[in-house]
Every structure is written in C-alpha cells, then in structure tokens.
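Quick start: load a record and inspect it. Here is Site-specific integrase:
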Amino acid sequence: MDNFQAIGLTSSALSENVQRFVVEATSASTRRAYRADVKIFVTWCEESGLVAIPATAITIADFLASQAQTGISPSTLNRRIGAIRYAHEAAGYETPTTNKLVSVTLKGIRRANRVRTRKKAAATVDKLYQMIAHCNTQTLQGKRDKLILILGFAGAFRRSELVALTVADIEEAPDGLKILIQKSKTDQEGEGHTIAILNGRLNVVGVLKDYLKAANLTEGAIFRPITKYGKIRKQTLTDRSVADIVKRYAKAAGLNAEEFSGHSLRSGFITTAAEAGANLFKIMDISRHKSVQTVQGYVRNAELFKNHAGNSFL
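Running the structure step on this input writes:
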C-alpha cells in the first residue's frame, strides 16, 4: 500500500484500513523525515548484516555510535530514534528504542559532542522592514514574496502552515484578518485554530488584496510557484521555498542569510512582541504554543537587559 510505504515499511500483517490510519497519525512533513531516517537505518543494517525490523537495542545502539562517528548531530540522531520507534510500532512490533542501552548511548553521544545548537536569527520587525524593501512589487513574484514575509511574520506562522493557506481560510475583519489554520504541528487532529492578524503599519490586508488580484486567485492555495515568465502555477509552494525566500531577502537586505530560515519569521514576531512588553498569553494566542516555557524562552532573551540587576551601579 503506497500510503503505508510512505514511512518506509510494508506489512502484510495489517489491514489496509489500519495501515491508512497509522499513516494519517503523522503529518506529511514528519512522514518525509521518517522515510529518510528509516531508509538510512535499514541501509546501515543491510551493510552490517543485521536485521532492521524488528531490531534489537544493541543494533540501534551500534547504529547511533556509528552515525555519531560520522559527525551526525545528537538532535538528528534523536529524530532517527523517533523514526525507528514509529516504524516498529507501525509494523506491530514492540519498540526497542525505549531500552536503557539506547538512551544511555545517546546521552553519551551528547556529552561527547558538547556542541551547542546555534539558533537561527529572528526576523524582528526592524529586519522585516529591511527585507520587504527589496521586494519588487511591480512583479507578481515580488508581490507574493512580500505577502509571504509580512503574513509569515504577522501570524507567527510555521512555514508548513503558511504554504497550506487557501483563499477560503482568510476572512477580512474591521481591524485586519481572521485566518483559519486548518492543521498545524500542535493540532495534528485538524480541529483548526483561528488567529487575528492586525492590519497595522504593515498593511497586511492591502498587500494580500494586491497579490490576489494580480494573481487572479479566488480559490485554492494562496502561495504557488511562479514561472520565470510571471505565470502562476496550480500546485502549492513547498515549505522549503519559504526558507529560500527568507534567506534571499535577508541577503538582499545586507544580513547574513545563513543565520536566517523559514522559522525566522515566526520567531521574529514572538521576539518583537516580547520586546514590546506584550502579554505572554496574548503572544501564545498568535503563536499557538502549548508550552508557556517555550514562549518564556523568547521573552527572557528579549528582556536580557531590561531592568538589569546592575542598572544602579554598572
């Protein structure tokens, strides 16, 4: 069954209905990552003369150690453990990834690695203005890119959420836009979440209308590929393209493009809101974070020098 094979497995033991629902339990982006990780694991096992599914804890520990020796980061290894776990569970096997040997091996790799993950830069509002200044709004691509940057920032969108937006998901309101996010990382059941986007100084409503009119879009996906001749395609833009667009305009603005990613728009809104003293829970209304601790991390970074303990004597 093609859908079940999307996670890199086949199983005659499971009915097609069960296989279909197993696959639907994860998002498309997660399945892509899992498929790649499981393929790497299976290939390594075949080359080592070991059984991949079901695997033993010793096999997985050896795999992790081998991967670490080639320079694979602990965060990537952690994701691969998740893929291996999901592959076993989806095929109806007990997962060996919970074995103490696996967790201890990964912990040892982390300690030996000791490399602090470098976070991507936040596209705060000042940087956003620098970036959109380089959008050529005389072209359809420039109009689209400007909307991606502005809407991605104003709605603190994950890039997968941004490219999934359709015309029907957006409703104009007196103060801006109401946008329905049909499915997201923290809403895998697809219950949906509506957020408010202020029109504000960025003129989100005007930029949206300008693009939709120029693209002649009245339904379907909002963000789509555009040919070099300025023709808009029918398919949806990929989330990878959002990251490329952010990097392109960061470079045009004289910023270090390597420090920016698709996540920079989302983190830019949260950081800017925190710097402006916005209420933590109001920020979470837009960002849709489930964890207060996650958002507090942004707030702490934004307020490092605010009311500093050394203000009176340093």
